[in-house]
Design a protein that fits this description.
It contains 18 helices and 2 strands. With 454 residues, the protein is an all-alpha fold. The chain has a two-stranded antiparallel sheet with strand order 1-2. It is globular and about 70 Å long. Bound molecules: phenylalanine.
């Protein structure tokens, strides 16, 4: 509806819009979390359930977020205030801002570690003392991740990098950096794929990743796959509705959601093609791919067994860094857009007010991951616990509420209008998608959520 299109900030081109949205989606979730989840959940069967979750739940929820964002044309809270002024639905936007900021306070610390590893791969420090056994990757990880001050400094540098991009605004900052970084990221991935697949013994790894054993599918596999789908696609907390407010008016939402989800799946899939063959090729399939161990211990170990060790390490940590940066930018933008639009702040002020406290929260989280690394609740570190709670509970809840809102409570015709770009009548595809959003996705998400507590 035209009266809502009053926002100035828009992406300048279709490519830029896709690059920025894919930049948000593709992150540590694809490169690090996906292989770890796949290993923990038995391999190929998880991959299939994951693809099912993306198609049946991820894409519909993404379309909901796109529709709310483009209809509202403003921040995560403002969208609901504009579309449903006399309701309390804006609270859902508020929850999204809180959730994305909470995840950001952890994600930025992990992004700091990747920068630290990138720098130490560049300087060669990562590999000193490994050959003669005077140092180990486990030891280095303790040093890099748990020492008091070093990770905090790298976290601060990552925050500064975010600030630099975000200050430039939507078009000159977010869009431009994504246009450069995303193609680079895909290029690095392709190089790794070719190398990993030509390693001797790669086929055993491929077998684990691609040959499903359905006896391994159970309730917890489905829960993890759904959480992973929402996390990886940046769904359930208003990140993509914030970006959708910047979509040009004639953007076809269905096509965009399909493209973004497809590219996001391709990246995760390629990471599987890289990691499982590499790990089995060097006889390391027994090693845990869980959490930090995969990227900070197992992979560096793999690199030492390949010619050109340092080059591979540099390339890999650069890949992680690119992925992490474009994702933290999108998480930060949710709160920044809120301060800009709701509280009428200048871009500069909004960026600072969101990013400066992050220094403090980042430092606290960084310290706690070091000092409290041995402190466990339900057998998980605080870090892992928050990751699981956020991904397996908060994101699905947010997604469920958004489906219910868009499908049942929003003013009539919101989905039809947005999904068909204001066409008078809707085609079969649009009507099918609306049906899925109203019935299939919410029931499936609710069922999986409830099953979790059984
Ligand atoms: N999708 C990002 C990833 O895969 C993480 C993310 C989650 C980004 C939520 C924004 C919002 O790493």
């Amino acid at each position: 509806m035209t009266k809502y299109y009053i926002m100035a900030a828009k992406f300048g081109s279709k490519i830029g819009m896709i690059a920025a949205t894919v930049g948000s989606a593709v992150g540590l979730g694809n490169i690090w979390r996906f292989p770890a989840e796949t290993q923990a959940n038995g391999g190929a069967a998880f991959l299939l359930v994951y693809i099912g979750c993306v198609l049946l739940l991820g894409i519909p929820v993404m379309l909901v977020e796109f529709s709310i964002g483009r209809e509202g044309g403003t921040d995560a809270i403002g969208n609901y205030r504009r579309i449903s002024p006399k309701s309390k639905w804006w609270l859902l936007g508020g929850m999204g801002i809180a959730a994305s900021y909470m995840i950001l306070t952890f994600y930025i610390v992990v992004a700091g570690w990747t920068l630290e590893y990138f720098v130490s791969a560049l300087s060669g420090d990562l590999f000193t003392g490994i050959a003669d056994g005077s140092s180990s990757f486990e030891g280095k990880m303790k040093d890099y991740v748990s020492s008091d001050w070093k990770p905090i400094i790298f976290t601060a540098i990552m925050i500064a990098a975010n600030v630099a991009v975000l200050m430039m605004g939507v078009r000159k900052g977010i869009e431009k950096i994504s246009n450069i970084m995303m193609p680079l990221l895909f290029l690095i991935l392709v190089i790794f794929c070719v190398v990993a697949l030509s390693l001797p013994g790669a086929s055993d790894g491929l077998n684990f990743f691609l040959n499903p054993d359905f006896s391994k599918v159970n309730g917890s596999v489905v829960i993890d796959a759904m959480g992973q789908a929402f996390f990886s696609l940046s769904l359930g907390m208003g990140v993509l509705s914030t970006y959708a407010a910047y979509f040009p008016r004639d953007t076809r939402l269905g096509r965009t959601a399909a493209t973004v989800s497809f590219l996001d799946m391709v990246v995760a899939f390629m990471m599987g093609l890289i990691i499982f063959p590499a790990v089995t090729s060097f006889g390391m399939q027994g090693e845990s791919l869980e959490g930090a161990t995969l990227v900070f211990v197992t992979l560096p170990e793999v690199f030492t067994r390949m010619p050109g060790t340092q080059l591979w390490a540099i390339l890999f940590f650069m890949l992680l860094l690119l992925a992490a940066l474009t994702s933290t930018i999108s998480m930060s933008e949710v709160a920044i857009r809120f301060f800009q639009d709701r509280l009428k702040m200048s871009r500069r002020k909004a960026v600072l007010i969101v990013m400066l406290p992050l220094l403090l929260f980042g430092a606290i989280n960084s310290l706690s991951s070091g000092l409290l690394a041995d402190f466990k609740i339900f057998g998980l570190t605080i870090f892992d616990l928050l990751d699981t709670v956020a991904t397996n509970i908060m994101l699905p809840l947010g997604a469920l509420a958004m489906c219910l809102y868009a499908g049942w409570f929003a003013p009539k015709g919101l989905l039809a209008r947005q999904l068909s770009n204001d066409a008078r009548s809707q085609g079969v595809a649009t009507r099918a998608v609306i049906f899925i959003i109203r019935w299939v996705s919410p029931i499936a998400i609710a069922a999986i959520l409830i099953a979790q507590f059984k």
